[in-house]
Amino acid sequence: MKSLSAMACFVVLVCISIPLSLFATTSQTGNPVPQIVGPAEPMAVTPGGPDFTLHVYGANFVAGAVVNWNNRPRATTFVSAHELQAQILATDIASNAAGYISVTNPAPGGGNSSASWAQVEVHAPISTILVNPLIIYPIGAWALSAADFTHDGVLDLAGEYGAYLGFDQGKGDGTFHPVSTAGRNFLSTTPFVYGDFNGDGNLDVALDNGAIGANEVTHMTVWLGDGKGKFSAGPTITAYGSLGGVVTDDFNQDGKLDLMTSGKHTVAEFLGNGDGTF
Question: Which of 174, 135, 181 lies closest to 158 in space, CA to CA?
Fold first, then answer.
C-alpha cells in the first residue's frame, strides 16, 4: 500500500508540472504588432488651440504602447487592447498641418503600426471648398494605397500602373511626383498590401503576380522598401490555389506581420518570419 501511495503522489506531481511548463513558455511570447482601425478622435482641430487628448482605436495594443504624432512619441495612457489616449501638445497644432498618427508597442516583439495609421487635420473651419486645377496621376486605377513611405510625415502613393506598382512621393501640398517602381509583374485587378515585413523600420509591399490561366494567380512577391522611395525584389510566396485578395496583420500576435489571402474556394494564412519571408 505504501508503494501505491507514493506512485499516486508522483503521478499527480507530473500532471501538474506539464501545464506549468507550458504556461512559462507562453509568458515569454513577444508583444504583437499594433494595428490602428478607423479614424482617431478628434479627426480635426483648429490651429492655435491648447493641448488635447487624442483617442486612438485599433487592435493589439498593450501596456506601454506609445502614440506617435508625425513620428514623435507623445505621453500615452493605455485604456485597453483596442484604445489608447495620447496627450497632443499645443505646439503640435500651432499652425495648419496634418498629424500622422501611428502606434508603437514595446519589445519584446511589438514594433510600429506600419500597416495602418490615422490622421488628424489641423486647420480652421471653412464653409466653402476651393477646387484646384485637375491633376491626373496615371496610377491606381485598380489598386491604390497612401502611407508615409519616406518618413517625412507626408503621405505618399503606391498604386497600380499596368503591370507595375508605381510609387509617387508626396510633396506636402497635395501633389505628388513619380519616383520609382515598387513592384513588377503586377496583376492589376488584384490588391496589394504594405507594411514593415522585414523589421528594418521601412515600409515594404506585397503584391500578387505569376498568372496561370485566366486570373489564376498563385504567387505573391514581397518588395522591400529602403525608406527613401526605392524598392527591391524580395522573396516570392507560392499560394495554395488562386489569389484574389490579401490583407496583413499580426494574426498570431508574435510581433511579426503575417499575410492572409483569399481566392477561388481558398483562404490561406502565411505567417511572417520577421525577415521578409513567410
Answer: 181
What is the tens place of the pLDDT at every residue in 124-149? 988 898 888 899 999 988 889 999 99
Distance CA 142, CA 164 (A): 12
Q: What are the tens digits of pLDDT across the range 199-239? A: 999 999 998 875 544 455 577 889 999 999 999 999 988 87
Indicate the average pLDDT of the chain: 85
Distance of CA 128 to the CA centre of its chain: 34
Locate 119 and state its grid cell. Answer: 490622421
- Helix ranges (H only) for 2-149 are 2-26
Read off the pLDDT of residues 82-120 as tens digits, 9 standing for 90 and up. Answer: 999 999 999 999 999 999 999 999 999 999 999 999 999
Nearest Cα to 36, choosing from 97, 99, 101, 121?
101
Asked if 119 contacts 99 with a C-beta cutoff of 8 angstroms, the reply is yes
Count of CB atoms situated within 10 Å of the CB of 13: 9
Identify the three-state secondary structure at position 271. coil
The Cα 114–Cα 26 span in angstroms is: 25
What is the H or E stretch that residue 105 is in? Answer: strand 97-105
DSSP symbol at 109:
B
Residue 42 preceded by cis peptide, ω within 30: yes
Phi–psi pair at 170, nearest 5 degrees: -75, 140
What would the grid cell of residue 187 be?
496583376
CA distances from 65 to 44, 79, 163, 196 (A): 23, 10, 39, 18
Task: Kindly tell me the sign of the dihedral angle through the C-alpha atoms of 148, 152, 155, 160.
Answer: negative
Residues 72, 52: Cα–Cα separation, whole Å = 16
Model's pTM, two decimal places?
0.83
Q: What are phi and psi of 180, to 5 degrees?
A: -160, 175
